[in-house]
């Protein structure tokens, strides 16, 4: 679990950056009732799954009951980050083979629970867009303070846009010096085309000259982008 700095290195600069992002999300949630949050990116390898894992850990650390769902049914990653088996996951629930209690996995972080993808379906988009999926998310909303959904890259498939339809908001992850700006713009437009509530952007993998660490995970919300201001964490 070396990639989950908030668990393995809680005093590091990276962990502090995630705590700052958590605070930003909390302030953006004042009186808004944001509970189900989708984490998206424009392409693979921007660090989206690592970001959502660290965010989930940080919210759990402040006594929030958190569920992290692996919504990337094509290439599930969450189970590997937490050293869990990708068995008895959300697909098994939707197929009626298992119930939620059979599939929820505990972590060593108190208050944090994982729901892996489970069996990989031949039609991931159809599964995510199904009425059963929407009803499932509605049915568990009251059980958790926050539900984070790790979505597939939106610049490649439509799955993230589908997930955003039953999410309260979307956080967009951008890999510093990695993603083409036109692809990032296209991904943002796809989210906007389904009226997704984009909460903000995390600039990931920004390398600062502090202990040679990737630590500056900048976060800025919609109001910041309009004013062309950015908060450096």
Taken as a percent bin, the fraction of beta residues is: 15-25%
Low-pLDDT parts are 212-218, 223-233
Radius of gyration: 17 Å
Distance between the first and last residues' Cα: 23 Å
Helix content: 25-40%
Strand order of the largest sheet: 3-4-2-5-1-6-7-8
SSE order, one letter for each helix or strand: HHEHEHHHEEHHEHEHEEH
Main sheet: strands, sense, barrel = 8 strands, mixed
Mean pLDDT: 85
Helical segment count: 11
Summing up helix and strand content along with how strands pair, one would put the structural category as alpha/beta
- Gross geometry: globular
Question: How many β-strand stretches?
Answer: 8
What does this molecule look like?
The chain is an alpha/beta fold and 233 residues long. The protein contains 11 helices and 8 strands. The chain has helices at 5-8, 13-28, 48-60, 78-81, 90-94, 100-103, 124-128, 131-140, 159-164, 181-193, 222-226; strands at 36-41, 66-70, 105-106, 112-115, 146-150, 169-175, 198-204, 218-221. It has an 8-stranded mixed beta sheet, sandwiched between helices. Helix 2 crosses helix 3.
List keywords for this structure.
disordered C terminus, globular, alpha/beta, single chain, 233 residues, 8-stranded mixed β-sheet, 11 helices
């Amino acid at each position: 679990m070396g990639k989950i700095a908030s668990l393995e290195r809680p005093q590091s600069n990276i962990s502090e950056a995630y705590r700052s992002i958590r605070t930003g999300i909390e302030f953006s949630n004042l009186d808004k009732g944001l509970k189900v949050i989708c984490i998206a990116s424009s392409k693979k390898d921007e660090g989206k799954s690592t970001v959502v894992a660290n965010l989930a850990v940080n919210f759990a650390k402040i006594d929030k009951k958190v569920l992290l769902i692996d919504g990337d049914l094509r290439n599930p990653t969450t189970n590997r980050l937490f050293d869990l088996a990708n068995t008895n996951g959300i697909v098994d629930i939707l197929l009626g083979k298992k119930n939620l209690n059979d599939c929820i996995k505990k972590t060593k972080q108190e208050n944090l629970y994982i729901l892996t993808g489970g069996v990989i379906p031949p039609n991931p988009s159809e599964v995510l867009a199904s009425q059963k999926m929407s009803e499932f998310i509605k049915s568990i909303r009251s059980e958790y303070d926050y539900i984070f959904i790790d979505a597939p890259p939106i610049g490649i498939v439509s799955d993230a846009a589908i997930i955003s339809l039953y999410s309260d908001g979307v956080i967009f992850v951008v890999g510093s010096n990695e993603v083409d700006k036109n692809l990032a713009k296209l991904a943002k437009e796809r989210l906007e085309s389904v009226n997704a509530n984009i909460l903000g952007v995390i600039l990931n993998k920004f390398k600062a000259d502090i202990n040679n660490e990737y630590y500056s995970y900048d976060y800025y919300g919609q109001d910041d982008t309009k004013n062309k201001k950015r908060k450096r964490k």
